[in-house]
Amino acid sequence: MENFTLASPTTIEAALAAAQQADAKFIAGGTDLLQLMKDHVERPQRLVDLEGLPLDKFSIGEDGARIGALVRMSDLADDADLRRHYPVIAEALLASASPQVRNMATIGGNLLQRTRCGYFRDVGFTACNKRHPGSGCGAILGVNRLHAVLGGSDYCIATHASDLAVALAALDARIEVQDSDGTRKIPINEFYLLPGDTPDRETTLTLGEIITAVHVPPPANSERSLYLKLRDRASFEFALVSAAVVVAVEDGRIRAARVAMGGVGTRPWRLPAVETALAGAALTREALMDATAHAAEGARPLNDNRFKIPLMQRALTRALLTATA
Ligand code: SF4
After folding, report:
1. CB–CB of 312/269 below 8 Å?
2. 317 lines ligand 1 (CB under 6 A)
3. How far apart (Å, rounded) are the C-alpha atoms in residues 156 and 149?
4. What is the Cα gyration radius of the chain?
5. Which pLDDT band holds residue 22 (cuts at 50, 70, 90)?
6. Angle between helical axes of 285-292 and 308-324 (0-180°, round to 10)
7. Which domains, and CATH codes, for the chain?
8. Pairing of the two strands 174-179 and 182-187
9. Nearest CA to ligand 1 atom 2
10. Is the pTM here over 0.85, yes or no?
């Protein structure tokens, strides 16, 4: 790890002022950034510790949920109101990392975690456009079993690693961010950028902007939600394929559904074609399989990750059957 200075502001304004240099980084729980610093992937000269900021409050009301950026993952997952109103969020959180990591990691940090691409996280590999723009991509012709089949480019095919972000994508959450000019709310489905030819740019956050909260709309009447994560081992593992479903049922048929997937896209992947096909579908395996057949439309699988194509359809169908049972 390289030397760095540490600032510990107690107001958002002071934190924003301390982070105006390009070599500064915000840190909260540190569960991702510290590992990247130890591995020399990240080399900030200045860290701005956010732990002293008043961003650790969580509430649910008629307008939905407001989740402060510094709320711990474990605290949110344990909240009885959250589990009742937004089970998909609690399930996504509990499927993430380990209890020890969830006790430290924050909601804002989870949304900004970096990809788990092994080429990105090992500086022994020189080709990684995300780490060093213009250096190439080791994964495209390398080992790409865990990589994206949707949203990739010739420059990067890394998946986004957050389970929580997939649940929030299905819920149409908005990310509240603040800079010295004020606050703005960004729909989560516009917050993450496709890699294109600049995979080092991952979100629409600008220099010095900070995530202050996540807003989740109130659940509709009779809406049910669920998060299903398929992975190589049962805990402390990232998704091969995951599915977040938010579904309303009426008279034995799906009235409306919102669906997002993880482990398959370069950002949390919303599936509008599946949502359209699900509207009015009967709650049978056959009808749901017909609708979820659209899941991988536009996919570009590589040598090692073709298995994700059929797995997407099966995972989504299982998630829908479970949620509506
Ligand atoms: Fe780097 Fe992206 Fe290629 Fe991984 S997939 S090596 S993160 S450019």
Report:
1. no
2. no
3. 11
4. 19
5. confident
6. 140
7. 5-52 (3.30.43.10), 55-325 (3.30.465.10)
8. antiparallel
9. 156
10. yes
Please give the number of the atom of ligand 1 that sits closest to the Cα of 147: 5
Q: 239: helix, coil or strand?
A: coil
- Token pair listed for 43: 């080399």
State in Å: Cα 295 to ligand 1 middle: 24
- Check: CB of residue 285 under 8 Å from CB of residue 212: no
H-state helical runs in the chain: 12-18, 33-38, 73-78, 80-85, 87-94, 99-104, 107-111, 118-121, 163-170, 188-191, 272-278, 285-292, 308-324
Residue type, 5: T
Alpha carbons 260 and 243: distance in angstroms, whole number: 6
Amino acid at 31: T
pLDDT, tens digit, 9 for 90 and up, residues 152-197: 999 999 999 999 999 999 999 999 999 999 999 999 999 999 999 9
Q: Is 151 in the pocket of ligand 1 (CB under 6 A)?
A: no
Residue nearest to atom 1 of ligand 1 (CA): 128
Report whether 274 contacts 158 (CB < 8 A).
no
Q: In what order do the strands lie in the sheet with 174-179?
A: 58-61, 64-68, 210-216, 174-179, 182-187
**More confident: 234 or 193:** 193
Q: Which residues are bridge partners to 100 per DSSP? A: none
From first CA to last CA, the distance across the chain in angstroms is 50
Please give the pLDDT value at position 208.
Answer: 82
Determine the residue of 116, 119, 122 to mutate for testing ligand 1's pocket, defined as the one with the most ligand atoms within 8 A of the Cβ atom.
Answer: 119
**Region of residue 222 (phi > 0: left; psi between -120 and 50: alpha; otherwise: beta):** left
Residue 274 contacts residue 288 (beta carbons within 8 Å):
no
Q: What is the DSSP string of 106-174?
A: BHHHHHTPPP--HHHH-TT---BTTTSTTS-BTTTTS--TTS-SBS--SS--PPP--HHHHHHHHTT-E
Give exposure, 134-157, as e/b (b: 16+ Cβ within 10 Å): eeebbbbebebebbbbbbbbebbb
